[in-house]
Amino acid sequence: MRLARNSTAWISVPLFLTAAMAAAGSWYISAAALVGSLFMIFFHRDPDRMPGGEGMVSPADGRIIRASERRIAIFMGPVDVHVNRAPLDGIVVETEHIRGGHLPAFMGAASRNQQNKICIKTSDGEMEIRQITGTIVREIICYVNAGDRVLRGERIGMIRFGSRVEVTLPECYDVVVSVGDKVRAGETVVAVKRS
Predict the structure, then answer these.
(1) Domain ranges of the chain
(2) Residue 21: what pLDDT?
(3) Which of 13, 103, 119, 129 is in the most buried spot, having the most CB atoms within 10 Å?
(4) Where are the alpha helices (DSSP H) in the chain?
(5) C-beta separation of 165 from 74 below 8 A
(6) Which fold has domain 56-193?
(7) Positive/negative CA dihedral, 118, 122, 127, 130
(8) If we measure between CA atoms, which residue out of 95, 86, 65, 92 comes closest to residue 163?
(9) Residues of the chain with pLDDT under 50
(10) C-beta of residue 191 within 8 angstroms of C-beta of residue 56
(11) What is the pLDDT of residue 39?
(12) Distance from C-alpha of 116 to C-alpha of 145, rounded to nearest angstrom
């Protein structure tokens, strides 16, 4: 199983604690640490994905919590894959870390939480992806920098432990998902180009 980039410390610490407590004979603590280790491995999984259909693919796994004319917001729960992907081919114009609050990621006001903004220039116009933290760990990892070329479905970053991703569509795209729909990063088509 492939694991997300920069996840080694998150996985190795509970594994070390499991072994140390087992060696010391503390079986209850060792069992709890083992459960923590398994959760960390599960949480940091990074499956391969193949973009589906034609159009803009989802930047995140999760549930659609907003689907307006130009913006889609996706809430990533604890069991969702937290690796984010590029919705379309393009060139990264800029990335910007923005300070903010730490409200629960499913709330509308969470749009003002700490976040990372990624602007991508596509052949159909610019789009903006916002990786937004939640209340717990609040760690955003961005894999791309200004000037990088990204492909549709390519990994662009990760957010740890409960978060959301918002994407602003180029003007020539129409949203094809609804609030409540489940989506998969890099696979589910969330918007199509207007003909």
Answers:
(1) 8-43, 56-193
(2) 67
(3) 129
(4) 8-23, 27-43
(5) yes
(6) Glucose Permease (Domain IIA) (2.70.70)
(7) negative
(8) 65
(9) none
(10) yes
(11) 74
(12) 12
Name the DSSP letter for residue 24.
T
Per-residue pLDDT of 134-149, as tens digits, reads 877 678 889 999 999 9
- Cα–Cα distances in Å, from 8 out to 23, 60, 100? 22, 22, 27
User: Which CA distances in Å does 98 have to 118, 132, 174?
Assistant: 11, 9, 28
| Closest C-alpha among 43, 16, 48, 44 to residue 29 | 16
Closest Cα partner for 135 from 158, 167, 159, 168?
Answer: 159
Angle in degrees, 0-180, between the axes of helices 27-43 and 8-23, rounded to the nearest 10 = 160
Other C-beta atoms lying within 10 Å of the C-beta of residue 28? 8
Chain-centroid distance of CA 163 in Å reads 8
Percent of the chain with pLDDT over 90: 51
Q: List the one residue out of 130, 122, 112 whose CA is nearest residue 74.
A: 130
What's the confidence (pLDDT) of residue 162?
65
DSSP sequence for 159-174: EESSEEEEEEPPTTEE
* Residues recognised as catalytic: 163
Is the pTM value of this prediction over 0.90? Answer: no
